[in-house]
Amino acid sequence: MKIKLFTLPNLLTLGNLFCGCVACVIIANGTFESKIIPIITILLILSLIFDLLDGMIARKMKISSPIGKELDSLADVISFGLLPSLLIFKLFGGTISLNKILYFYFDYKIIPYFEISKSAPLFSDFLFLFSFLIVLFSALRLAKFNLDESQSHYFKGLPTPANTILIFSIYVYCINNIVGFIPPDTYYVITLTLLSSFLLISNIPLFSFKFKGFAWKDNHYKYVFLIISIILLGLFQMNGVPFIILLYIITSIIFRKKIINVN
What we know:
Helix content is 67%, strand content 2%. By secondary structure, the chain is mainly alpha-helical. Strands 1-2 form a two-stranded antiparallel sheet.
């Protein structure tokens, strides 16, 4: 069987992956500061656009393929799995903790000029490992999505792009509102990580934005959600995103039967 690799949808998916890789490198090598936010914002928006277009164009051109589906999930693991994990890693102050651990056990510094005493790491220094739950549960969520045919017209659990936007908005809030860019309370970040991981693999039915028609009767809850979301973004900018995600979940729960029974 001949497999076409370089189709337009696949190239768009690779564009998503490329932007995700660049964003991850910038986050990993940056510090807990506001200067990287505009760069990450642009790369994240591009990843989202590529992720939206690849499936749309594949359906329009009628060239959907198993390799395209698998490639899409592989790209999403990086752009919408590893990327939010690294943001959580930063919120944990993971760079400092990792530097301390490596210096104590292996006499190695990932940041050579970073001054640190060679003292035994505390239990709290290992908590940044929680951050990688996001990429692990994102991979589980994407694998589950690929095998669950019932998710053709709605989602089970929070989609990885929505989860990434949620975590990025909280990261931006922390950067802009914490004096001296000190990482937020560890227990707050742990709670966020565990909640995010649960939502990714939960069976909560969440509506999809694939419109089969534009009639108000069939899509009224989607239109109301979009209108309220635009208002929240206009009033609070990125700070409104967590409320939009919460609204998305609540709306989906309220209209659960309608979402599941869509033909």
